[in-house]
Amino acid sequence: MSSGMDKYDIKVVKYFIIAAVAWSIAGMLIGVMLAAQLYWPVLNFDSEYIQFGRLRPLHTSGVIFGFVVNMLMGTSLYIVQRTGQTRLFNKSLSWMVFWGWQLVLLLALITLPLGYTSTKEYAELEWPIDLLIGLVWVLYAILFFGTIAKRKVHHIFVSNWFYGAFIIVVTLIFVINNLAMPVSLTKSYSVFSGAQDAIVQWWWGHNAVGFLLTAGVIGMNYYFIPKVSERPIYSYRLSVIHFWGLVGFYTWAGTHHLVYSSVPVWVQNIGIVMSLILWLPSWAGAFNSAMTLLQNKEKLKTDYIMLFFMSAILYYCLATLEGPLLAIRWFNMIAHNTEWIIGHVHSAALGWVGMSAIAMFYYFIPRLWGKEQLWSNKLIKLHFWLAHIGIALYAIALWVAGIGEGYMWLAQQENGSLVYSFVEAMDFKAPWLFVRFFGGACFVFGLLIMVFNLYKTVSMNSSVSKEGSADA
């Protein structure tokens, strides 16, 4: 069996997965710190370096580019080898991609707390780092598509279609959104202005969610869900329909962030309509993954890795129903700029991406290190319930806070004056911000338990490798 490990380039995959786990902890710990600051502002400690405005982009960058991109790079380079039955296109190139990406993250860790920022959401890094991101991303694309080109089987597995779309679309939207005129080494200004800048920014911002946090993770799940359930994909044809539906409609939906703005109404309407259409391919894909798990009902009853994947699918359903709902003008009028939006984002990020990643870590890491089983099944059960309690508290608290906040902002006296002051709205949501902090802390505590469990697993003496077997 161990000879199977020699067939593929595994070491770089291990490094990417370790980096993903490390950044998941770091990024989410910063998130908990930010949640604490919102309830206890004194935790800013009057320091310019750790106040909310500087740590928030570090949190989002750490989670999106540190945790998720490392995870997607690692799993994509593993899956493209396994499904293509070939080694990576170039081993040295894979290490250039790994260390280049870690350099990007190190520079983000240094520059964002110092206040160097482009001010664009999810694209805050300044132009020299953007150039490095572009270089590393091109190398990653060459590595991934080069490996596909040298595959030894005719068929391209559906996971690789999703990974390929994630690479291509992120390249396109990142480059265009970050077009800027440098004025110094640490400052630049966008070539776009006004409404144009807003449209391009949310073309990027929403599709960073769509093709990093959605398409990439779907590609990962289409490989690992059949593996953990020990059954084939329920409908391979539906998985391809899911792919084309997502690619065809998602890129148009970003302007639903600009409803009731100075952007032309027809552009707003495109975002609304495409958001509503997206509900169909999203739920079709969720149904496909759920049915894949349900093909092995007996294992599903007791296997907490399968239950983590099923939970991720249910949160995906919730997020892809709530997203189109919030794009509708009436709901958007209440929800926009309130805590409801934050609740929506995090129920998707923690519920869909987080649960998928946790399931993948529990399934993949033992096998990557040649271990037959986890060190403690009791700890994975504890983690499962901590994660669910954390997400439920987080999301429900911000739904209540956001809906109440939205209504208070809109309430008017007969003479048109506001019924509630801004301070009264803040007082209303304050206790819910504490619940949000507590829920986030529960989720992160669960991640720490996972890290301990996985560390003990890979440290165990028994090392019977499944890497070369058909079910690895």
Automatic annotation (TrEMBL):
One matching Pfam family: COX1
InterPro entries in UniProt: Cyt_c_oxase-like_su1_dom, Cyt_c_oxase-like_su1_sf, Cyt_C_Oxase_1, Cyt_c_Oxase_su1_BS, Cyt_c_oxidase_cbb3_su1
Segments crossing the lipid bilayer: 12-40, 60-80, 92-115, 127-149, 161-183, 203-224, 236-253, 265-284, 304-321, 341-365, 385-410, 430-455
Subcellular location: Cell membrane
Keywords in alphabetical order: Cell membrane, Copper, Electron transport, Heme, Iron, Membrane, Metal-binding, Respiratory chain, Translocase, Transmembrane, Transmembrane helix, Transport
E.C. code: 7.1.1.9
Pathway: Energy metabolism; oxidative phosphorylation
Primary location recorded for the protein, binned into one broad class: membrane
Keyword GTP-binding: no
Superkingdom assignment: Bacteria
Record's bilayer topology term: Multi-pass membrane protein
Catalysis performed (reactions): 4 Fe(II)-[cytochrome c] + O2 + 8 H(+)(in) = 4 Fe(III)-[cytochrome c] + 2 H2O + 4 H(+)(out)
Cofactor: Cu(2+); heme b
Domain Cytochrome oxidase subunit I profile: 15-472
Record-linked NCBIfam families: ccoN
Family classification: Belongs to the heme-copper respiratory oxidase family.
Protein name: cytochrome-c oxidase
Source organism of this protein record: Psychromonas marina
Gene name, Swiss-Prot/TrEMBL: ccoN
